[in-house]
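Hey team,

Filing this mostly as a record. A colleague (T.K.) asked me to run one chain through the structure pipeline before their review meeting, and I want the input and output archived in the tracker in case anyone asks later how it was produced. No errors, nothing strange. Just documentation.

Input sequence:
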Amino acid sequence: MGKKGREVVEGDVDQLILELQKAYADEWIAFYYYTLASEIAEGRTSPMIIDALKDLAKDELEHASELAERIIELGSEPIRDFAQLTKMANYPEVKLPKDPKDLDGIIKAVIEAERGAIEVYNNLLKKLMKEWRDPITFHIIRHIMQEEVTHEEKMEDIL
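Output structure:
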């Protein structure tokens, strides 16, 4: 991003980047756990749930990519060290049940994770309106939050 592009962000750009990196970490963790859940889920209705989890995982990876692009535009870079993802994440784990046949437990864990993501993005939107006033990041975060709300609803409907 050019000089003027960074200047449109009011407030502490470094703090904004840190918050975006935390959200980036959250998205990678969600991608990992949703993919894992799709691979271990067992049971009669698991094919439908597996497909839904794969779709969600794909979206989470897309969100990570969108956040990485914005972090780079703001003059930084995404987290390079994979081990740092859990250290920087707002939600470092999706608490999947031990029993792969506990499909309700898997779905509930995903719903809880999506609610956490909605909270993170809602707080980011509030800060973007009051502290940073960054219209580009606001648009990206609003888009991601909208998809997280859709994910929560999709999983609630399955439950």
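Quick notes for T.K.: The chain has a mean pLDDT of 94. The helical segments are 3-7, 13-40, 46-73, 82-88, 103-132, 135-158.
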